[in-house]
Amino acid sequence: MAELQLKSVEKTYGNGFKAVHGINLEVKEGEFMVLVGPSGCAKSTTLRMIAGLETISGGEIRIGENVVNDLVPGKRGIAMVFQNYALYPHMKVRRNLGFGLQLRGKPKAEIATATDEVSEILEIEKLLDRLPKQLSGGQAQRVAVGRALIKHPDVFLFDEPLSNLDAKLRAAMRVRITDLHKRLKAEGRPATVVYVTHDQVEAMTMGDRICVMKDGHIMQVADPVTLYERPANAFVAGFIGMPEMNLVPAVLTRGIGAQLTLDGQTVDLGDELARRLYCQDGPVTLGIRPQHLGVAPAGSPDSLTGSVTNVEFMGHEVNLHAKVGSATFVAVVPSEQFDRATQRGDKVGLTVSGRHAHVFDVTSGENVSLKGQIN
């Protein structure tokens, strides 16, 4: 396994469109790094540049000690699992697994041993004599992973490998892939992984660290807990978390503590938030996660009075939608604490915790409430 480094990597197409803007990223040896972002953010383009399937327009890609900018994919020490699995349809699973080693001229006995080992790890021993058309989606996905694993590459690349599976199978395969990564690490052969997805659940549950991208820029690289609790900017705050963070316009004033005014209603968020701020008073964007937004009777002290617009019963919890002036909030309430009589149009109080509140600059989107915290 090897470390992967991207230094000022750019991608500009022939028509002048710049897809990737000088990104810098370091993936440690044995690390599971997830690239996540909305469609069109260039995460797959970045992965393809690492693989050598796209040429880079500037910068440097280094795998281990080697600069691989000009190397063909087969010389880069990578193995890739594609979205459509790309299995050879006329070859049985056994040969699909070992074909890469066959092309390298490995002895038949070595290929057979490696095939048996990989099929045991992925629990596909009973599939070895089947053709790809005889496999389910999950089985085909495991074969594709096995075909990459058998090569013992320096870096594994996954390009949205679970997107063709149904929700239940996706959840099972997430666990299987992360368990495989942990198993290899425990056995002393850690796998360096770069995994692309648009699904934030995959990102948060699989990645050691996550690289959040937008429009060819890296917005933040951090572990899942840091991304959730200390988003660097409003984009990351809104992208990570379900339901997404409430982001609403407000006006900040400071006296003894920090006060935020929304559509004529003011709440005092206290000293703790005030100490974290490094911005001027004035227009800001308030961020509060639905899980941290409290619900109280309308008119309660230190609450915002809103009007209920929708109630979504999710089983163990309820998503309560409410409007405060022109701003829309979502609050997640445990089912046992929710008043089932609540209906659309009812008035409700929303309480904002200063401890969990974030304040973002309206121009740059930067989180200006992280003073003194590691970002």
Automatic annotation (TrEMBL):
The keyword Ribonucleoprotein does not apply. The keyword ATP-binding applies. InterPro entries: AAA+_ATPase, ABC_transporter-like_ATP-bd, ABC_transporter-like_CS, ABC_transpr_MalK-like, ABC_transpr_MalK/UgpC-like, Mo/tungstate-bd_C_term_dom, NA-bd_OB-fold, P-loop_NTPase. It holds the Pfam family TOBE_2. GO terms for molecular function: ABC-type maltose transporter activity; ATP binding; ATP hydrolysis activity. This is sn-glycerol-3-phosphate ABC transporter ATP-binding protein UgpC. Gene3D superfamilies: 2.40.50.100, Nucleic acid-binding proteins, P-loop containing nucleotide triphosphate hydrolases. Belongs to the ABC transporter superfamily. SMART domains: AAA. SUPFAM superfamilies: MOP-like, P-loop containing nucleoside triphosphate hydrolases. Keywords: ATP-binding, Nucleotide-binding, Transport. Residues 4-240 form the ABC transporter domain. One of its GO terms (cellular component) is ATP-binding cassette (ABC) transporter complex, substrate-binding subunit-containing. It comes from the Bacteria.
